[in-house]
Amino acid sequence: MVIDVTGAEVEENDRQYIKQEGKITLKAIKVTEGVTRNNNPSFKVHFQDRTGRWAIDEFVVTDNALWKIKMLTKALKLPNVVDTNLIPSRYVVAHFKARSTQGGGTIYEIKRYEPSQLTNTYEPPKQEVPIEHQTVSADSDDEIPF
C-alpha cells in the first residue's frame, strides 16, 4: 500500500475545546467537507474563540437539516445560496449547552447561532457592465489613424 501524505495538515499542539455553557463569540477557522454514512453531503465548521479554544459543528445537507445551515448562514450574514468557502474568517455568537452522555461524561454542543458585531457584511460580487461597441464605417477617403 502506498499512501501520499503530501499536503496533509498536522497540528503541533493538542486542541483545547470549549467546555462551558453560555454565549461565546467564535471565529470560523476552516471548513472541511465530507459524506455521512447515508451518503449525504456534509461539512464541518471549525471555530476558535479568542482564547484559542476550539469548537466543531457538523452540518448535514438534507432537506430536513437545512434549517440548521440557514441558522448558521444567517448569523454569518451570508446569502441564501452560499459557497462554504465564504465561511472562514467570519464571526458568530454561539450558544453552548451541556448534555450528559450515556457513559457519564458531558458534551458541550452549539445549540444556536446569532450574528456577531465582528462579522463583516456580505457584498455580492460586482458584475461588470458590458461595454457597448460602436461600429464605425470607414470610407475609402477617411484616414485611419495608427
**Sequence of strands across the biggest β-sheet:** 3-2-1-4-5
Strand content: 25-35%
CATH topology of the domain at 22-115: OB fold (Dihydrolipoamide Acetyltransferase, E2P)
C-alpha Rg, in Å? 24 Å
Share of helical residues: under 10%
Shape: globular
List the helices and strands and how they pair.
Elements: E1 22-35, E2 41-48, E3 54-60, H1 66-75, E4 91-100, E5 106-115
Antiparallel strand pairs: 1-2, 1-4, 2-3, 4-5
Which terms summarize this structure?
34% strand; mainly beta; 5-stranded antiparallel beta sheet; 5 strands; 146 residues; OB fold (Dihydrolipoamide Acetyltransferase, E2P); single chain
Describe it for me?
The protein has 146 residues and is mainly beta. It has a domain at 22-115: OB fold (Dihydrolipoamide Acetyltransferase, E2P), CATH 2.40.50. The chain has 1 helix and 5 strands; from the N terminus they run βββαββ. The chain has one helix spanning 66-75; strands at 22-35, 41-48, 54-60, 91-100, 106-115. The termini are far apart.
Short description:
With 146 residues, the chain is mostly beta strands.
